[in-house]
Input
Amino acid sequence: MSNLIRNNAIVENEWTTVTLPAGEETIRKQAGKVVMFKLTGEQTCTPEQIAATVIPENGKVIVPLAVWQARKDELAPRLVKGELGLWLATHEPLQTLVDAVDDLNQLPIIAVHVERFADGRIFSIGNLLRTRHGYNNELRAFGDVLRDQLFFLKRCGYDSYQIRADRSAADALAGLQDFSQPYQGAVDESMPVWRRLPRGAQ
Amino acid sequence: MYKYDEIDQAIVDERVAQYRDQVRRFLAGELTDEEFRPLRLQNGLYIQRHAPMLRIAVPYGTLSSRQLHKLADIAKRYDRGYGHFSTRQNLQLNWPKLEDTPDILAELATVQMHAIQTSGNCIRNITTDQFAGIAPDEIIDPRAVAEIMRQWSTFHPEFALLPRKFKIAVSGTRHDRAIVQAHDIGLEFYYDEQQNMAIKVWVGGGLGRTPILGSVIREHLEWQHVLTYCEAIIRVYNLHGRRDNAFKARIKILVKALGIEEFRRQVEEEWQHLKGSPNTITEAELARVSQYFTAMPYETLPAHDAAFDTAVASNPAFAAWAKRCVHAHKVPGYRAVTLSLKPHGKAPGDATSEQMHVVADLAERYSFGELRVSHEQNLILTDVKLSDLPAIWEIARANGLATPNIGLLTDIICCPGGDFCSLANAKSIPIAEAIQMQFDNLDYLYDIGDIELNISGCMNACGHHHVGHIGILGVDKDGSEWYQVTIGGKQGNDASLGTVIGPSFAAEEMPGVVQRLIEVYLRERTDEERFIDTVRRIGVEPFKSHVYAKEAAHV
Output
């Protein structure tokens, strides 16, 4: 059974998400520093890891941003065929992704990996991709993605949610309907409620 | 005050349903402790020492009589018959059962209340001056904008899971009473040269483990842009604030690390994209919300009232109360009244269900059915006729609500501390009670005059100890409780952080330490000086040497 929600329904996942081989753990820590204070300037993963990343030869794949950057020549034909998407982690600077392709809309899918439920950077990243960078195709959240983020993710421009494997996507679907009329303008509905509806003045 | 329409009501009702299901999933084992934690926290539910603690939002400290009656009933039915008013103008229940919390929220929703975002790493309750709308020194009443911001921040999807909690305070008075400089964002309203409502924006203030006063990020912001400008600030923080260390995760740390110049540059760059977007407030929306905050239907009254004057002249106890607990009002013949929740020897900020009912009735009868909670943890009737003061005093006194100590040494700001809070390093309530008993002499208290004493049971600083003229901080040393003392802190436009006087003290020493600090003040003061003025003039040294010299002599 698929655990992918797209457009308010559980659907089969056409995409294979490619991950980096082990070695991430220590690097991720430093990457946090890079993003936070731009002090150290390390890469988010090593050349060895990028080289060792195994990519299926056929079918639709979502590869790590760093792998795309290092192995563009090898992967470019798949981008042309519409069979390549990219993913980035919440601690990676969004600008790196924006600079990595001529036009973000060449990508049929962008996925954002959230390591912990409590990491709300994923919301700003979604918002910026949709509003600042004009990205129109599928935007997927994956990682520690659970029912109680979905309403916020939807409002921040995500339309695709890979629910964590040990949780029910059917249950999570309900989370998309938590509130009928949110107050503020966001990505899915840019108008705040006072511009959408007549409001009571008793 | 603001009244919900169907949209507001639907949001709190849907929230109750959502939260009820979250609790159900937790109790059914479908959510782990760790997964339930951020969900319950976003709803003000802490797991505490003895029981859960539920924090109920009191937006910018405003309550109706009906709401306070409901809070009293809830405290009676689901708790032990009392509640604690906090330094962020909210109400905390110390003993609810987890299983009951959805029902408590459902009851709150019937009186247009909730516990949304009273905790957790999100935008918290927006606080302001307890005298907003009636203060003689008020330039702009900030409550309408505060309400618009309350709605905007409620379930803001982009800022639902920030690096750390986020507190906003608004103020529109000449003399700041909302401590705007000690908040993540502080908004100071004023009229600019064109007589348009404008905002001076402070950012990166906060107490806690690393106390820092805010920096001005923008001197002049047109009110229409307040939401989009805050979005720019919080977006920069959301993306770049530290998430690896909870103690370094507040926006103040990011502002310090980048420097205010660089932080401002990033915010302004972000704002260029957001400025003018649909969250820009319209005149119509401001007008719609402002109509809930228009002046009360005041009577035309003389500036003096003979019965009041007689009562002051003939009854010293009433005169003492009128002096400390009655405050100026911008309308002739009206006053604001502070009902003290600081009777000597009781936990500061606590009110029983019976007291809540009494206050709700007083508000209904004498103050247009509304009241306020102050960050000093007292209750305020804002619109009382001068001629009604004697009657109010009688009722308040009969119910333990008329201790004439507002602004005095025993009007202590105090967090729940180690008696209740699982974060605390030390107890705070018994220290407050011991100091109140040490100074249980009104003449002496009046002689000491205006002073603020604030106590926190740990460095999270819920008791605002850094900005107390005298601040007391509970610390843990090898498993035992000790108290560190600071002096020279102050809230207001000229806010400052206190200076530590030296090594910490045992609990039983604390009343004596405060006594010695007061002795130095009484010895050194000039006629017009308050405690804080004397500290600022002569510095910490004379206080320090007196406190510790006597310490040495005792050994």
In short: Chain B touches chain A through 48 residues (CB under 8 Å). The first helix of chain B runs from residue 6 to 27. The radius of gyration of chain B is 23 Å.
